[in-house]
Write the structure tokens for this entry.
Amino acid sequence: MSPVPPSSESVSHTTHRRHRPHPVPIPQPVFGQPVFNEGVASPDPTHLLIPHPSDSALYQKLGHTLQTNTVSFPASRAAVGEVYPLATAYGARGPSTVQAIQHQGKIIFHAVGDTGASSGNGYSEEIHVADQLTADVFQSKPADRPSFLFHLGDIVYNFSESKYYYDQIYEPFRNYPLPILAIPGNHDSFIIPGTPPEEIPLTIFSHNFCAQQPEITMEAAGLHRTAMTQPGVYFTLDAPFVRVIGLFSNSLEDPGVLSSEGGKWPNVPDVQLDYLRAQLQRVRDEHYAGAVLIAVHHPPFSYTPPGGTASAAAHGGSTAMLRQIDTICQAVGVYPHAFLSGHAHNYQRYTRTVTLGGKTRQVPFVVCGSGGHHINPVVHAIQGQPSPEPAFGTNTTYLEVNPAVQSSGLILEKYQDTNFGYLRVAVDSTQLRIAFHLLDGTGLQQSEFDVVTVDLATSTLVAN
Ligand SMILES: [Fe+2]
């Protein structure tokens, strides 16, 4: 957004910021309902208010625990078959907002992962992404205006510290005028050994995204954005024309983990498996006609060269996690129209051809971890020698390892690994359209780098 002179209000917000424990009650919004933006543009910050020391030494020390220390988490407040209505996220404006979307005949929303900035060096990138998302809302024609942001995880680096929430989510998105819903990523959940109970990352996340009431938290200081009221770290957003089933893929750098996997991760409860099953059964039993998406931070598929292994920075796919999802889909007889993920810091779009119940579907698996933290190439140099980059349309069926559904191919349709961006998802009564927008565009049309459209009735791709 264009900078404007700071108001005394915006200055006071930053100076009133507090860390836990907070002895003074936070002033709540005068409207007593979700407001989400301040209504007055503020200057872009140029640095983190709290200097963020490098965590490199800590990462070295944590070593293999980043690959082995999963976390437990509480069951959702909602029953397994319940959904979280978009209207609830809007508070008092919920019914009229949902009515307007239904009247419009389509819904549009943003999705992106990995927006946080772990140092002042990368902060401008996060600000650029947040600003373009904000500008997108304000500049869109009413019929094309997004209705919410679904964050795909890794919101506050490096370990979801309460003191960094203001810098990494509340301040950058202070004028983003829509609800922000989120699934936690590994950086929002990994517990450094010895962390005091009140500073457990998921506790901080839940305080800000899974609150009982839409109150202003101490992390937001005086900003008007209220805490989101998701029923848990996994939940299903039920919006007009679309349901997004958000799953928590736990705290490891790799892979994504949904459950105990039969005792392999003993502290991880199995509640999400029952939850996913119940949600898909509900879709089936209701003959739900809208789009069904699964959002999960760790991508089921992420590029690895044939015969190669993903570098730690590149992040490979999560085969066991996908097998669990596929197994439940197979048993229920419902397959989502698309998957959305983050984690890998780039954009990748795959088409997976899946046959379920005698029906062959083309399912986009979209990775959008380009939200501002940094960008990683999909291939890395090996011993100083550049690795060949895959062409658009490369057959990556080798990434399918022992699939639990009948799969007949996986194509890496397109990717973008040099610039930041975000998704604009549009759904009407017949189609789901997922577009990846780059930051270097001028205007929405020019910034659209890639798009895929799915026919909802057939679950097949539509030529664009
Ligand atoms: Fe991640």
Summary: The pocket of fe (ii) ion is lined by residues 154, 185-187, 297, 343 (CB under 6 Å). Residues 1-18 have pLDDT under 50 and may be disordered.
